[in-house]
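Example: ATP-dependent DNA helicase RecG.
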Amino acid sequence: MPAADEIDAPPAIRSRLHKLGLERREDLVLHLPLRYEDETSVVAVAAAPLGVPLQVEVLVVDVVVSVASRRQLLVTVSDVSAEHGDEGSLLRLRFLSFYGSQQRAFEDARQKRLPLRAFGEIRDGFLGLEMVHPRYRILRTASTDEALPQSLTPVYPSTAGLAQGTLRQLVARALRDVDLGELLDAGWCAAHRLPALSAAVHLLHSPPPELAAALLQGRSHPAWRRIKFDELLAQQLSLRRAYLARRRKGAPLLIATGGLAKALVSALPFALTGAQRRVAGEIGADLEQPFPMQRLLQGDVGCGKTIVAALAICQTIEAGYQAAFMAPTEILAEQHSVKLRAWLEPLGVEVVCLSGRLGAKTRRALRQQAATSAQLVVGTHALIQEGLDFARLGLAIIDEQHRFGVVQRLDLRRKGGNPHQLMMSATPIPRTLAMSYYADLDVSLIDETPAGRSPVRTRLFSDARRAEVTAAVRAVVADGRQAYWVCPLIEESAKLQLQAALDTYTALVGELSGLRIGLVHGRLGGAEKAAVMAAFVAGEIDVLVATTVIEVGVDVANASLMVIEHAERFGLAQLHQLRGRVGRGAHASVCVLLYQQPLSAAARARLKIIFEHSDGFEIAREDLRLRGPGEFVGSRQSGVPLLRYADLEVDADLVELAREMAAQLLRDDPERAAQQLRRWLGNREELLRA
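Written out as structure tokens, the predicted fold is:
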């Protein structure tokens, strides 16, 4: 027997419900329709519009199994009220897959003159009007006065083997059995145009036919607003609880005189921006707290996040602790290592760089160094592999944090017990998304670009104008500058991706004869990659052909031209990141987006956005509009189950309201907060804790 709150259904049905995340009867009540079908009325075949979902009430005239092209069941029907032989009232129901029992049931209905109701779209087929695979029901008697439904018919999200009829029965039973007690103040709900939850749920499961379909389909009806608010409230409560729980944990007190940080700033060949100083102050204050910092540092490409991280590292080291800096790729880890060594080693800081390409003996020695004397350890995911232990880890920095899964981020945190954590991202998160998906983090923003950076012009060229692009590369090199040429993105196959890089390199060696061409891709060994990048940095390579391994972190001030081949295959965040590899010096810089016709509507929209905008946050907002929050953040990176009903852009006001209410409930009525969490998340709350 199932537990009191579990769904009472056969094991096979419960297994399919499990795939939908439906374990409890309350889950069924909150499993709301995707759309609705109107079976509250019938339309005469002779008067029915084409291509519109509707219901007809008809008599079976003929039943035939056709084997002309493929085996199919053809059931000719006629309006119940039609005169015999009236061609205008005839309709053919076409079933491309069927059972013998269906054929027999239609034959029986023809012989007994039992009416049937069929729901679907009528179209003009080869042999006249037809409905393909309609939903139908044969009435029990020859009388056609069987009552029609009084509400719209819900169509629920489902899975293979779980019929809509079964779902409707289970939901109807749960609605009778489950008491959705109100957890929010009625007066407060009324003031914010939010109906009672129980009334909202019942209306959405069985709306009356006169209710405007647009309000239901567009999810703008007040009942939908209440559902969205409650869903967002549960999410905010869970993330806020995780935030408060973290503040109850102990962490190293990283209190320093600031001497090391001052020495670093004095030695820099550039002045910090106001935004960098402000953000460094926010992080520094966090590090002095007795609970672990968990801060997201956001800033557009080239805004100077690394130097802010270096100042936090200085405070950590001066307080007697170690810092770890984890980057998603070996190229980026190597770049950070070179930059941080140049800044910190002259100040007496011991820096170690760990990566997967090191030999076993070297790796063992560096692990030993990390466990004892090293003050800063820089590396890739090698930092979280077995066998590496930190002596006194006080600060863990994760660059391009969205490139790591939640488990990897947690592994680094566990390495040092409970260090402070700073996550950095040059993929900006729009405000509503940050409020929702990162409500358990403190967020800092560098919103100022360092002086001396040249703006990057973006130009669009179709592949037919490739010769003009190669001529532009020659001109740039003749002027003493360097260029990147990024290969087409082929996500489905690493082997094809490598071949595309090799083909592009071979073609450019021919097209740009006389120039020094280099090639770097993800399948090169670590030492080879490092050698090619070092040669490019030193100016020994004119044009670097690369895959997206150079997407983040690569900093070569003399490179002033970026060519992205097959730009239509790239996402907006990647295009913006790649464009950010140039314009890092004082030279005028250009990014050429080389695309191939014909363009899909989505590709055209992306290229238009990247052409018109240079601000990363504006691009992120447009990206969110195009892709939706689920794909923008990605459940693997965020660790947050995707919202089923709320839309973070459309419902931004509800996100604000949910944040305020979450704080109030946790402060004034924690039991009611717990009830809200149980209702909406059940045992899924742990997914939000990473």
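The first strand starts at residue 35 and ends at 37.
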